[in-house]
């Protein structure tokens, strides 16, 4: 992520989208990560992956990514070309996993966004600009350590660069 | 102000006092990876280009999610785990040994006061022995394999005080379903749940595991029970490693305290397609059922199989029902065989599946058909969870599942227990 900003079109989902819905367990047994994308959201929106254009944004309600710890869920989203996930809240493990693989997971009031809206996301300033509605939405600030990991493009790059966690990670 | 059990466990590990809300980097006592999420962790670890993991004696691999292997792709992933374990000197439990969480506890690999992690959301099960344990993703696990550490935010704790005793025919599964129905799927998000009270004090270790196992279904980071004499006896018979049990201070700050009267509970059923869609059994009675599944890290222990056999023994499974039973470990299967539980289930018409996750994660071994209803002792009923998004999953206790298997429709187990 060079300039820490993104642009894309909204795909809208409701509350409690669990990781089984994001990628079913039967498809997770592979290391060909691009295969995961073709089954993204299959159980709730069968042809979803065909609708995705690179840079698009998943926009959801409360508790996105609840359920299993499977990292294949954020990986499937990233591999499909989706650039970020916006939600009112995230389940804890999904939130960490997304940041760890370099997929921005951002908390904001998603009621202000409709299906198909054009969005511009400034990760540094913490602002989502809804171009379609000419409306600015502020994001909940991310913990510093997560922001650092995201800026490096994920935990693996972060640890390769720093070798370890800094002692006090506030 | 005193501290909660989790604040005390983390403070002890750091050698400095921390409180809920603090960010810190903690040393890890045990990391578990299984065949569904382990391969991604190894892939990420390889990117560090380091030869050795931080401490192979603190890592355990388990093949349980798709076992025995259903196809050559999964066989390849199993082999990847086996060769990495061999290369690094990591203990691996292979096909047929059982479900990761059951094995970790049964083998005494997690002890009171530990910080234990696993690449599985139900890692919170280890809270049953008074450990602070929770699920992480594969990349976080690769960081642990490299450094032995994880960054985290110290969670606040909700205390659930469970008064009195459960009535006959009502089980810890009914209690935890009721709790999830109250809290909802994100009611304990980022929090730890401490289970306490007379009802919990009375519970054997296996029942405490059922409770802690499902804490994640309310979004919790962990579920925990303060260690008592039963806990110490359990762990000392399984491990000679030293440990420091912790319990919450009398004046600890809990973000919320809920009281529940266990004596007032009746059997509970979670309706499709969310775990928090919980109803008393009276709302469910009569719902037709085509498949019954008894097993999983929630309810695949010896006492669960006995509970089912007490109802099914001497009776027959309904002709239109398939009853699948999956003991949570080889040890449990051996004991259940010795005690005649397995023959009693087989005589009733059950199909016994080798120890492992079985049909729960929807990979193989019991994928339901289109339009079918399943009642299961598992912990999740999301649409498609068992491999078919056109089937419906109801969650209940082993006793309710057994009674439903006899009748071919959801049934109240209490009428079989007089």
Rg from alpha-carbon coordinates of chain B: 21 Å
The overall strand count of chain A is 7
In whole angstroms, how far apart are the ends of chain A? 23 Å
Strand order of the largest sheet of chain A: 4-3-2-1-5-6-7
Order of strands across the main sheet of chain B: 4-3-2-5-6
Estimate the mean pLDDT confidence of chain A. Answer: 94
Main sheet specs of chain A: 7 strands, mixed
How do the strands and helices of this protein lay out in sequence?
The complex is a heterodimer of chains A (170) and B (418).
Chain A: E1 5-12, H1 19-22, H2 33-37, H3 48-51, E2 57-59, H4 72-79, E3 84-87, H5 92-100, E4 105-107, E5 118-122, E6 127-130, E7 135-138, H6 144-151, H7 155-162
Parallel strand pairs in A: 1-2, 2-3, 3-4
Antiparallel strand pairs in A: 1-5, 5-6, 6-7
Chain B: H1 5-14, E1 23-27, E2 30-34, H2 38-47, E3 59-62, H3 72-88, E4 91-93, H4 100-106, E5 115-118, E6 132-135, H5 138-147, E7 149-153, E8 157-163, H6 172-183, E9 192-196, H7 198-202, H8 205-213, E10 222-224, H9 229-236, E11 256-261, E12 268-270, E13 278-280, E14 291-294, H10 296-299, H11 302-312, E15 322-325, H12 330-338, H13 341-348, E16 351-352, E17 373-376, E18 392-395, H14 398-407
Parallel strand pairs in B: 2-3, 2-5, 3-4, 5-6, 8-9, 8-11, 9-10, 14-15, 14-17, 15-16, 17-18
Antiparallel strand pairs in B: 1-7, 12-13
Helix pairs in contact in B: 2-5, 6-8, 11-13, 11-14
Structure in words:
The complex is a heterodimer of chains A (170) and B (418). Chain A is of the alpha/beta class and 170 residues long. The model of chain A has no long low-confidence stretch (mean pLDDT 94). Chain A contains seven helices and seven strands; from the N terminus they run βαααβαβαββββαα. Chain A is globular, with a radius of gyration of 15 Å. Chain A has one domain (5-154): Aconitase, domain 4 (Alpha-Beta Barrel), CATH 3.20.19. The two termini of chain A are 23 Å apart. In chain A, β2, α4 and β3 (84-87) form a beta-alpha-beta unit. Chain A has a seven-stranded mixed sheet with strand order 4-3-2-1-5-6-7. The longest helix of chain A has 9 residues, at 92-100. Chain A has helices at residues 19-22, 33-37, 48-51, 72-79, 92-100, 144-151, 155-162, and strands at residues 5-12, 57-59, 84-87, 105-107, 118-122, 127-130, 135-138. Chain B has two domains: 5-260, 2-Layer Sandwich (Aconitase, domain 3); 271-416, Aconitase, domain 3 (2-Layer Sandwich), CATH 3.30.499. In chain B, the strands form five sheets. A five-stranded parallel sheet of chain B has the order 4-3-2-5-6, with helices on both faces. Chain B is of the alpha/beta class. The mean pLDDT of chain B is 98. Chain B is globular and about 60 Å long. Chain B is built from 14 helices and 18 strands. The N and C termini of chain B lie far apart (49 Å). Chains A and B meet through α4, α5 and α7 of A and β1, α2, α3, α5 and β7 of B.
């Amino acid at each position: 992520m060079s300039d820490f900003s993104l642009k894309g079109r909204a795909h809208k989902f409701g509350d409690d989208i669990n990781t089984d819905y994001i990628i079913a367990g039967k498809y997770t047994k592979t290391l060909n990560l691009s295969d995961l994308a073709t089954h993204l959201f299959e159980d709730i929106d069968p042809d979803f992956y065909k609708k995705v254009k690179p840079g698009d944004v998943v926009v959801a309600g409360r508790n996105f990514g609840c359920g299993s710890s499977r990292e294949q869920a954020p990986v499937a989203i990233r591999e499909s070309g989706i650039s970020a996930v916006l939600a009112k809240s995230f389940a804890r493990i999904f939130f960490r996993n997304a940041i760890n693989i370099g997929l921005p997971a951002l908390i904001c009031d998603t009621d202000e966004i409709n299906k198909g809206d054009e969005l511009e996301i400034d990760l540094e300033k913490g602002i989502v600009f809804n171009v379609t509605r000419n409306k600015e939405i502020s994001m909940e600030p991310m913990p510093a350590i997560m922001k650092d990991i995201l800026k490096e493009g994920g935990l693996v790059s972060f640890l390769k660069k720093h070798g370890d966690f800094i002692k006090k990670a506030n | 102000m005193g501290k909660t059990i989790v604040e005390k466990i983390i403070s002890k590990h750091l050698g400095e006092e921390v409180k809920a809300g603090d960010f810190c980097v903690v040393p890890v006592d045990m990391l578990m990876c299984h065949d569904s999420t382990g391969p991604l962790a190894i892939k990420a670890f390889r990117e560090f280009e380091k030869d050795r993991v931080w401490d192979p004696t603190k890592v355990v691999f388990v093949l349980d999610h798709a076992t025995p292997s259903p196809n050559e792709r999964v066989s390849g992933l199993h082999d990847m785990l086996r060769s990495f374990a061999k290369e690094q000197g990591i203990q691996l439990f292979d096909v047929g040994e059982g479900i990761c969480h059951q094995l970790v506890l049964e083998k005494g690999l997690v002890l009171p006061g530990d910080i234990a992690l696993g690449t599985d959301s139900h890692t919170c099960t280890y809270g049953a022995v008074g450990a602070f344990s929770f699920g992480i993703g594969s990349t976080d696990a690769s960081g642990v394999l490299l450094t032995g550490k994880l960054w985290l935010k110290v969670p606040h704790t909700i205390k659930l005080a469970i008064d009195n005793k459960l009535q006959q025919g009502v089980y810890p599964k009914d209690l935890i379903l009721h709790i999830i129905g109250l809290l909802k799927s994100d009611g304990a998000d980022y929090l730890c749940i401490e289970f306490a009270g007379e009802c919990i004090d009375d519970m054997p270790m296996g029942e405490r595991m059922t409770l802690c196992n499902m804490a994640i279904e309310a979004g919790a980071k962990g579920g925990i029970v303060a260690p008592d004499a039963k806990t110490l006896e359990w762990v000392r018979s399984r491990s000679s490693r030293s440990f420091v049990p912790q319990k919450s201070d009398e004046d600890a700050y809990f973000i919320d305290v809920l009281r529940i009267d266990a004596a007032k509970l009746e059997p509970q059923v979670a309706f499709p397609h969310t775990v928090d869609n919980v109803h008393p059994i009276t709302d469910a009675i009569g719902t037709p059922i085509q498949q019954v599944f008894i097993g999983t890290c929630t309810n695949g222990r010896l006492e669960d199989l006995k509970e089912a056999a007490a109802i099914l023994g001497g009776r027959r499974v309904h002709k239109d029902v398939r009853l699948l039973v999956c003991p949570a470990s080889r040890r449990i299967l051996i004991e259940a065989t010795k005690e005649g539980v397995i023959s009693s289930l087989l005589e009733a018409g059950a199909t016994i599946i080798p120890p492992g996750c079985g049909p729960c994660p929807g990979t193989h071994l019991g994928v339901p058909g289109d339009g079918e209803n399943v009642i299961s002792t598992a912990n999740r009923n999301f649409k498609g969870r068992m491999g078919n998004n056109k089937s419906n999953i109801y969650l209940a206790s082993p006793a309710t599942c057994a009674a439903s298997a006899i009748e071919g429709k959801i049934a109240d187990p209490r009428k079989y227990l007089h």
